[in-house]
Amino acid sequence: MVAGKRTKYLKIDPRVPELHKIRLAARILNRGGVVAFPTETVYGLGANALDARAVRRIFRAKGRPSDNPLIVHIASFRDVQDLVAYLPPRATLLMQRFWPGPLTLVLPRSEVIPDVVTAGLDTVGIRMPAHPVAQALIRAARLPIAAPSANISGRPSPTTGLHVLKDLRGKIDAVVDGGPATVGVESTVLDLTAPVPTILRPGGVTYEELASVLGEVAIDPAALGEQAEQPRAPGMKYKHYAPRGEVFVVTGEIERVTAKIRALVADWQRLGYRVAVLATQETAPAYEQEPRPDHLEILGSRSRPATIAANLFAALRNCDRHQADIILAEAIAEEGLGLAIMNRLRKSAANRIIHA
Ligand code: TXA
Ligand code: MG
User: Where does L-threonine bind (predicted)?
Assistant: First the structure.
């Protein structure tokens, strides 16, 4: 659609998605439009994956570099066949165990997928989202749906319909609002075309879960924050998840981390900056005394990283609303979902890491 046009806002009950609203959104997709929709990870910005013109609209709306491929979303297992050149046996194993869910499989692509979707690569990322609204929409459209996260390129991914509107109102045809995304970080991108299955981006399905099915799993160095020359998920090389304030991640033993953050709060405030802190339930009391940050986000509990993941992107966006110049985030343990959380934090901090 032309920039400045009206974006339809469709509020849908995720438990019983109203069929007439789903059909309306599906019609827009069928006509080559772009529609934002909820998935269990983050909101996606969808278009017909088989229509190059429609897919180009996604890139334009987001301001996304054209060398960054999109994930193709499907709603039934048999939809995979047409999209891939062949299906390695371990792909079937993973699909049975983790689909629908937050796992994207990078597979050899077939001819039906336009180059614009895969950014010219000979592979395609495919996933089956678990969200009932996403599934209903894909089914109603009877199409594979190409969809990146529904944010302006470089911004934190959207976990609510309002986040999408904030970034893309007037630039897309519709937003289907099915409530907050529950996982909160994107899918795990797993390359099955490598000799050893390789995590290109950690996400909602953990390394430990994949290893329990596959035995051997590698992690691309770029996904661990090591400055790899050539990350294999093209998206990993771009500025990412960045709020307007500058994010710093503070690592180390937890008492030292809170002490260091409190000292930094005082230092930055003395210089006249507004400072936000991203803390956890366990550490929040440390910031509820002087020096108080201008804004405090309590992400969740260290013993339940899923609660932290669910709130992370909204917290980064909240820091913008509170006009934080500096955002100090506590590191968390890099196990389970912690790997994906730390990957997103490091990226939002553009690798500004402080060791306490
Ligand atoms: O959870 C998610 O994956 C969300 C929801 C909407 O499904 N989508 C999402 O898409 O996060 P996006 O475009 O923001 O991130 C896709 C990532 C990028 O880093 C991209 O480079 C990588 O997946 N990717 C996609 N296709 C690829 C391929 N064929 N080979 C390697 N990396 C690929
Ligand atoms: Mg994204």
Answer: 41, 68, 73, 127, 147, 187
